[in-house]
Design goal:
Elements: H1 2-14, H2 19-43, E1 46-49, E2 54-57, H3 61-67, H4 70-101, H5 108-114, H6 123-133, H7 140-147, H8 161-188, H9 194-201, H10 206-234, H11 238-243, H12 255-265, H13 269-294
Antiparallel strand pairs: 1-2
Helix pairs in contact: 2-13, 3-13, 4-8, 4-10, 6-8, 8-10, 10-13, 12-13
Subcellular location: Cell membrane
Organism: Roseibium porphyridii
Keywords: Cell membrane, Membrane, Transmembrane, Transmembrane helix, Transport
Length: 298
């Protein structure tokens, strides 16, 4: 009898049924995604009461306070600025570098391999690196910018409201532009050569070839890269936390950093959950709108 049961179980696992293989994935999805989402929604209607040492129901108070909170709107403005500026810079830089590295000449393969090095560095470590390089006294970037007359010694990069966000952006550009380069390179090297040969015979210039052949054929690749990188940019946290802690003032406060501060520094668990849910809704709306506009097909 035991042999029959064992054989039946073994046959069930090795059979054509997808259930044994999907069950672990579904369990992980429930534990790490669905349950936290519904718990976060539930938590947004509660708040931690320090004197009672428990969560108490507050109704829509957190939601009402959120939309009346000027710090939330400032953090949202910084998040969108960070999102759009960096996305544009990384797409343009990534495409330019990818075009330069799209060659089979000796050494270019090594250069393409070196691009992966920045991607394996934790963002917190990158933030510490640029924090030191932008130090007003011994930072190498500060020294170079002062020597070029771009920066004054009385205006430290990360301690000045007008330049702090740009200082944080430098770290992100350095670390994640290679990600865009690698995606664009993969797309460029998979393009058919026949349209380029026809363009060459017709006497098309390099710019005309790029605008009329390369860009249209790369549109889906660019769309996917923008989608992946855009989602990551919208929830930026590491660089701000390490380099500026949101300062000076609120000039580098993003939604993710603001949610963390409210949750763990001020012990407002319900309010932090509310900010997180708004961030999630914004990401979903922007991502799906972009998928619809760019006609991305998975």
């Amino acid at each position: 009898m035991a042999f029959v049961r064992t054989r039946g179980l073994r046959g069930y696992i090795t059979g054509d049924s997808p259930v044994p293989w999907l069950a672990p994935l579904v369990a992980m999805l429930v534990v790490f995604t669905i349950y936290p989402l519904f718990y976060n929604i539930w938590l947004s209607f509660h708040e931690y009461a320090p004197f009672k040492r428990r969560l108490v129901y507050v109704g829509t108070e957190n939601w009402n306070n959120l939309f009346a909170d000027p710090r939330f709107w400032e953090a949202l403005s910084v998040t969108f600025t960070y999102f759009f500026v960096l996305l544009a810079i990384q797409v343009v830089l990534g495409m330019i570098i990818a075009l330069l590295l799209d060659s089979d000449e000796p050494g270019f393969g090594l250069l393409r391999g070196l691009l992966t090095l920045t991607l394996v560095i934790p963002p917190a470590i990158t933030g510490m690196m640029f924090l030191l390089m932008e130090d007003p006294e011994f930072g190498v970037l500060t020294y170079i910018l002062e020597a070029m007359g771009i920066l004054s010694g009385q205006d430290p990069i990360l301690a000045t409201s007008s330049t702090a966000l740009a200082g944080v952006m430098l770290a992100d550009i350095w670390q994640w532009t290679p990600f865009m380069v690698l995606i664009f390179l993969a797309g460029l090297r998979s393009l058919p050569q026949e349209p380029y040969e026809a363009a060459m015979l017709d006497g098309a210039s390099a710019f005309q070839t790029f605008r009329r052949i390369t860009l249209p054929m790369m549109s889906k690749v660019i769309a996917v890269a923008v989608l992946i990188r855009g989602i990551d940019l919208f929830r930026a946290f590491d660089y701000m936390f390490v380099m500026t802690s949101g300062g000076p003032g609120t000039s580098t406060y993003t939604l993710s950093l603001y949610a963390w501060q409210q949750t763990f520094s001020f012990i407002k668990w319900g309010y932090g959950a509310t900010i997180s849910l708004v961030s999630l809704v914004l990401i979903l709306v922007i991502a799906n709108l972009f998928i619809w506009i760019a006609k991305v097909r998975w």
